Q: What sequence folds into this?
């Protein structure tokens, strides 16, 4: 299901499009942004991208990104937000079918992100949670001041699914766009996970080790809550299955009375490998 275009059909706006800045004209980084304190903010988005499997979209029909400038306002083309992670469905993976993106420019892409994930920290709580924060910050109303992140996601980009994860207490908050506003959805305290029916995929908290870091992580799952594997995990599973099948084949052939040399010839294994599998 593609998101609707965020561009007005106003002929004057459409006529001005060629003069608007493109992805190549806009900065791709914020040089004043402070460095990240540890590995987690880099690894968590990688895990989200590497476990994302959408049955209704192929890998070339969606775009995922992390900490990338997201430009959203035609009237203020330099205004942008930098989501920790997002996915836009119905958007080609490559920019103009040729190359990776340096930023995501709404007036070029014409499709808003479908899911945005923010990783909560004490310094970003009011920005990430908006009016749902314990101490909501006052919303900026000046036309020359960029609006807060929550307002942009809800009122301007109209992102259908917004997730905020706090790794410090393993809490997950899920906001779903209902009409013109976000409604917070209930998340179970035990084995918390959410289901996104439009994408036929869920998002769960997993306590495990990814890239050598033990941590509570967000990762995608199926309708039964079963975690979806990364590409590396899937390859390992396939290799283990293949090894298990060949081992069982060797045992079956030996049980039928075949000699070790015959089994080796039939399976392509060496005599030493068959001998190692054979019952002692």
A:
């Amino acid at each position: 299901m593609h998101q609707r275009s965020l561009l007005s059909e106003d002929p004057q706006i459409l006529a001005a499009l060629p003069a608007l800045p493109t992805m190549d004209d806009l900065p791709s980084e914020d040089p004043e942004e402070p460095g990240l304190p540890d590995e987690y903010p880099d690894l968590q988005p990688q895990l989200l991208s590497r476990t994302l499997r959408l049955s209704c979209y192929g890998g070339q029909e969606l775009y995922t990104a992390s900490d990338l400038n997201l430009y959203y306002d035609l009237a203020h083309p330099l205004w942008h937000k930098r989501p920790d992670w997002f996915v836009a469905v119905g958007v080609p993976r490559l920019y103009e079918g040729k190359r990776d993106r340096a930023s995501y420019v709404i007036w070029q892409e014409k499709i808003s992100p479908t899911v945005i994930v923010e990783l909560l920290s004490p310094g970003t709580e009011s920005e990430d949670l908006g009016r749902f924060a314990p101490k909501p910050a006052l919303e900026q109303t000046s036309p020359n001041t960029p609006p807060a992140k929550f307002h942009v996601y809800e009122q301007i980009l109209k992102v259908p699914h917004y997730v905020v994860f706090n790794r410090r207490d393993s809490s997950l908050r899920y906001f779903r766009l209902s009409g013109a506003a976000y409604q917070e959805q209930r998340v179970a305290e035990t084995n918390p996970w959410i289901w996104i029916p439009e994408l036929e995929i869920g998002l769960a908290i997993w306590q495990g080790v990814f890239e050598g870091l033990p941590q509570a992580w967000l990762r995608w799952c199926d309708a039964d809550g079963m975690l979806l594997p990364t590409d590396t995990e899937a390859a390992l599973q396939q290799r283990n299955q293949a090894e298990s099948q060949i081992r069982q084949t060797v045992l079956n052939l030996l049980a039928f009375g075949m000699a070790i040399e015959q089994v080796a010839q039939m399976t392509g294994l060496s005599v030493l490998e068959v001998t190692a599998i054979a019952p002692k």
